Amino acid sequence: MNSARPYRMRARAEAAEDTRRRVFDAAAGLLRQRLRADIRLEDVATGAGVTVQTVLRVAGSKAELFRVAFEHILAEIAGQLQGAEPGDVDAAVRTWFDHYEQFGDVVVRTLADETDPAVGPIVEVGRAKHRQRVDHVLGPLLANRAADERARVLDALVCASDVYTWKLLRRDFGRSRADAEAAMRLMIESIAGSRR
């Protein structure tokens, strides 16, 4: 009889972890589609196939639920943005577009929601990470610049490669991905003074 106890405990632990994963996956999925303020706990519960009480038991609070869900999305984004070697403008633009094509709309919606105290810190992390990535990947193009000039040019490169630039090109202007990538490359190369 006692030999069955560890099995039941392991099965319970696995079921609890599966429920936790489904809850946070459902919350992250909804965050990709809507503003945080427009998502109800009932929506998350339905998506996870559990009750609202289970969502709260798993997450503790609505704020914590979305904090963890945003962390999951940020981890996905970080993994997706690997692959461009420093100085490789083509690979950098392609990688940003891979990311923006998948997450751009949700990022823009999240930016619209940044006055929410739970969302603001996440947006700041995203901005800081974008700047770090731009500096890492495009920084070699600025190697011969004086420090103050480098900082200004880096600001311009951050803007040229930002999600709002993608949104203007793809959503507002209706450009094809190839044309939008070419426009972003042109901006980056013009700013960095490395046009081919």
TrEMBL record:
Question: Can the keyword DNA-binding be found in this entry's annotation?
Answer: yes
Q: What is this protein called?
A: TetR/AcrR family transcriptional regulator
Which superkingdom does the taxonomy of this entry point to?
A: Bacteria
The record's section on InterPro entries has: Homeodomain-like_sf (IPR009057), HTH_TetR (IPR001647)
Residue ranges of DNA binding: 40-59
- HTH tetR-type domain ranges (all copies): 17-77
Nucleus: is it a keyword of this entry? no
The organism named in the record is: Amycolatopsis silviterrae
Task: List keywords of the entry alphabetically.
Answer: DNA-binding
